[in-house]
Specification:
- This is microbial collagenase.
- This protein has 850 residues and is α+β, with helices and mostly antiparallel strands.
- The strands form six sheets. A five-stranded mixed beta sheet has the order 1-2-3-5-4. A four-stranded antiparallel beta sheet has the order 11-10-13-14, with no helix packed on it. Strands 15-22-17-20 form a four-stranded antiparallel beta sheet, with no helix packed on it.
- Helix 8 crosses helix 12.
- The N terminus is likely disordered.
Length: 850
């Protein structure tokens, strides 16, 4: 199965691929297309173009699924996208939309609506904020319009600021006095006001002074320096608050203390790592648009030396989970260089020092690219000094040396041989003919530009993530993306992707080659206008469905995910016709889009042609009416068609690789279930196990040397030479011991994920440590296990509400901290876990595998 992009990531990918871009950048920046070629801006100009304060950022899971096609990102978006977050970093976030449990229980005891805050003032408001859960306060970041004004007008902010100052002066390194709720409320106020100034009203100097007084009180103490999990969460929010209030220039000394105090011992406390990243990702980057910050750096540029030393001295982080810290330090440093002549004089040699110490290729690549990009963008007049002029060309020469012009396509590739380049060219030429026969177009849509397209093909996901954004302007938290604006005569369409070693379904192992090329062809021959116009109606069933359908059908491959979904009968066709990126998760977008498009081509081709006739002249409402007016008329027939599809009608001719796996300790066993459709028979099996080993047995077993999560892929070949490949992921034990899996990447520290762990869980006797996990459709087995640490922690599971010793459907209550629960055939959705402290426990690791 291909991995599917989580909804949060999918939605973000429409405009940036990084969720925080939307919350930090002004609308003017988002609307911009293409990098600026201007020299460094003046302080006033930089301030006018300042990104907005940070919202309650969510970090979408990185995926190997393609992102939606999009217009080119602006240079501001790309700069912000380069500012990463440590893997597994802790953050306070709003709860998942469907999550029950603690937040729901709290809501039952205390209401959490905008009216609850607008109807309270002064001390009453402060008391309500302090008694609210952080989940409740976090929801305020989403307020707009009249509710936003009622909650966050300045008269509401001032008493909370006063309370924050009082609590900050007595800060003891924990949240005993609810300081976290107060700072979250204040951060939310600055964020909401910046995006809804008309509704909220202005904030004046009195609020700024109150904010500064509170922060001064916080940093006057010593407990903010505690290297603990609870302090890390609070410190991060206060450091971001310095940025939200545009007081970055007042806290250069604090930022220097935070950065110089960091060493690798912090890595055992993820929230502290995230706190160290807060000034790097927010204040020191966004501050460069603030004239007061620029003046402060000009008066004391030692912060630049701290950043340069951090970037060079912590290169050991590169390639690891905390690499973002090192990369962000370089980004901040080079962003400063273009802020003023005074700052530039001090910073220029430091930027060059970091660039010169960071080779373009290899482990230091991310640091080089980030530092060079910011310098080339914001201090362009000195690009020759830095040796970064025309940076995209420089990166292409270093990273993508193998090239071929294939008609109107230019292939720029990292590792493709001459034979592979020729094979890709042949595949794309054949797809042209297939596409035109499928959609029956009459040539390019008039006045659509982008008649040529550049392919950027990287050797692996790591290099794609490192280099692609700076070369092609695309988001990289995905498995490929097509970036184009056919209405701009100066735009160059690009489609970017990478190879996978096991992937024999795509030519030259290029992941999503034909899917992405379909997006390009669809944008030239079927859909008039730019991406915004093309998606102005609910037509994602077509945009993504036709790319999926063409990719599988052209390659003669079976969409096994779609066949599985067909058997579930989850959606009506009339529902899929209303798909948008905002209302659909990736399962509804991709396999169900495939099913809808395939059904319409097979059963109602005249409707497809009528729809495309309107799309090709830019009449998207008219095209939408073609299928919307069908209403529910095709639903019954579609449902019957799904049954036949699942029963075998959707198998492609030839072989389809299917298999199951079972795990016992460090050993995985594969059982072939492959299907041959039509003439021929499967005669060869090849398994790859993700650790460099393979087997040609039909039903092999393989023992891994190291515990972890691996990609197992089966390729089958029939007696006519046709092949099919299907992958899955497995998590294995070594010697029967506990699973060693990566730290979960969800920003919420109570969120589990697929094949990941949360270390250092703790609770005192009689209390519970609560967690949750989202299970995607098709999950067959969930295994939850705990290990390590001290004390006795019982493990509980509940499918519907928060798990506890009195509310559970599965449990493990062995003495000590080693527990295990296996749940078979769970349904999709949020599921709930808890570790109950029979005695005090600490240092326990909890893992989920599915």
């Amino acid at each position: 199965m291909r991995l599917r992009t989580p909804l949060s990531t999918l939605t973000a990918g429409v405009i940036a691929g990084v969720a925080t871009v939307v919350s930090l950048l002004p609308a003017t920046a988002i609307a911009s297309s293409g990098p600026s070629t201007a020299a460094k801006p003046s302080a006033a100009a930089a301030s006018a173009a300042a990104p907005k304060p940070a919202g309650l950022a969510t970090f979408g899971a990185d995926s190997d699924r393609f992102a939606p096609p999009a217009a080119p990102l602006s240079s501001a978006q790309l700069s912000q996208a380069a500012m990463g977050e440590p893997v597994g970093a802790a953050a306070v976030q709003a709860p998942p939309q469907k999550k029950a449990g603690l937040a729901a229980a709290a809501a039952a005891a205390q209401s959490c609506t905008a009216a609850d805050f607008t109807t309270r003032t002064g001390a009453d408001l402060v008391a309500f904020v302090e008694s609210s859960t952080t989940d409740c306060v976090s929801t305020l970041f989403d307020l707009t319009g009249t509710p936003a004004g009622g909650v966050f007008k300045q008269s509401q902010m001032l008493p909370v600021e006063a309370a924050f100052k009082s609590r900050a002066a007595a800060y003891t390194g924990d949240n005993a006095n609810s300081i976290l709720q107060l700072v979250l409320f204040l951060r939310a106020g600055y964020y909401v006001q910046s995006n809804n100034a008309g509704a909220v009203g202005s904030y004046d100097a009195s609020l700024t002074a109150a904010s500064k007084a509170g922060m001064d009180a916080f940093f006057a103490g010593t407990r903010w320096k505690d290297v603990t999990d609870v302090n890390g969460n609070i410190l991060k929010q206060v450091l971001i608050f310095t940025d939200s209030a545009n007081l970055q220039g007042s806290y250069l000394g604090v930022y220097k203390q935070v950065l110089t105090a960091y060493d690798n011992s912090y890595n055992a406390v993820p929230s502290m790592v995230s706190a160290v990243n807060a000034p790097l990702r927010y204040a020191l980057w966004r501050g460069s648009w603030n004239p007061d910050f620029v003046k402060a750096v000009g008066a004391d540029p030692s912060i630049a030396t701290v950043l340069a030393d951090f970037a060079i001295n912590h290169q050991d982080l590169l390639g690891g989970p905390n690499a973002a810290l090192d990369v962000n330090a370089g980004n901040d440093l080079s962003r400063m260089a273009g802020t003023s002549a005074t700052v530039e004089a001090a910073v220029k040699p430091l930027v060059k020092r970091v660039i010169d110490a960071s080779p373009i290729v290899g482990r230091t690549g991310p640091l080089y690219v980030g530092t060079a990009y910011q310098a080339n963008q914001y201090d362009a007049a000195n690009c020759s000094y830095y040796n970064v002029c025309n940076l995209p060309a420089k990166l292409i020469a270093a990273v993508l040396p193998n090239q071929l012009v294939c008609d109107n396509r230019t292939l720029q590739t990292q590792a493709l041989s001459a034979a592979e380049l020729a094979a890709v060219c042949t595949s794309l030429r054949g797809e042209d003919t297939f596409f035109h026969n499928l959609v029956k177009d009459n040539g390019p849509v008039p006045n659509q530009y982008d008649k040529t397209v550049t392919f950027g093909i990287f050797a692996n996901k790591t290099d794609y993530t490192t280099y692609s954004w700076a070369i092609y302007g695309n988001s990289t938290d995905n498995g490929g993306q097509t970036v184009m604006d056919p209405t701009d005569p100066n735009n160059q369409a690009v489609t970017v992707m990478y190879q996978k070693s096991w992937n024999l379904n795509d030519t030259a192992r290029v992941w999503n080659l034909n899917h992405e090329y379909t997006h390009y062809l669809d944008g030239i021959y079927d859909m008039k206008g730019n991406f915004g116009a093309q998606t102005s109606v609910p037509n994602i069933w077509w945009v993504e469905g036709v790319a999926e359908y063409e990719s599988y059908t052209y390659r003669g491959a079976t969409d096994t995910d779609a066949m599985t979904e067909a058997g579930k009968h989850t959606y009506k066709l009339s529902t899929i016709f209303q798909n948008t990126y905002g209302n659909s998760d990736s399962t509804r977008v991709y396999p169900w889009g495939y099913l809808a498009v395939r059904y319409m081509f097979e059963k109602h081709p005249a409707d497809v042609q009528a729809m495309l006739a309107r799309f090709r002249v830019g009449d998207y409402q008219g095209g939408y009416a073609v299928y919307n007016n069908v209403g529910t008329g095709y639903d019954a027939d579609f449902d019957a068609w799904l049954t036949s599809c699942n029963a075998g009608a959707c198998y492609a001719p030839g072989p389809t690789a299917l298999f199951t796996t079972s795990v016992n300790g460090g050993t995985v066993s594969g059982t072939d279930k492959s299907v041959q459709t039509g003439a021929g028979q499967i005669t060869a099996w090849n398994w790859t196990f993700g650790d460099g080993t393979s087997s040609n047995l039909r039903n092999p077993s393989h023992t891994y040397a190291v515990a972890g999560t691996y990609t197992v892929a089966l390729t089958v070949t029939d007696n006519t030479g046709r092949i099919a490949t299907t992958p899955t992921s497995v998590t294995v034990l070594t010697g029967g011991g506990p699973v060693t899996v990566p730290t979960c990447t969800e920003a919420r520290t109570d969120a589990m994920g697929q094949n990941c762990s949360r270390p250092n869980r703790a609770a005192t006797a009689g209390n519970s440590d609560y967690l949750y996990v989202y299970l995607p459709a098709g999950t067959t087995t969930l295994k939850v296990s705990t290990s390590g640490g001290t004390g006795t922690a019982f493990l509980y599971y509940n499918a519907n509400t928060w798990a506890s010793p009195t509310a559970f459907t599965a449990s493990s209550t062995n003495p000590g901290s080693t527990q295990s629960i296996t749940v078979t055939n769970p349904t999709a959705g949020y599921r709930y876990l808890s570790l109950y402290a029979s005695t005090d426990f600490s240092g326990v690791t909890v893992s989920t595998q599915f």
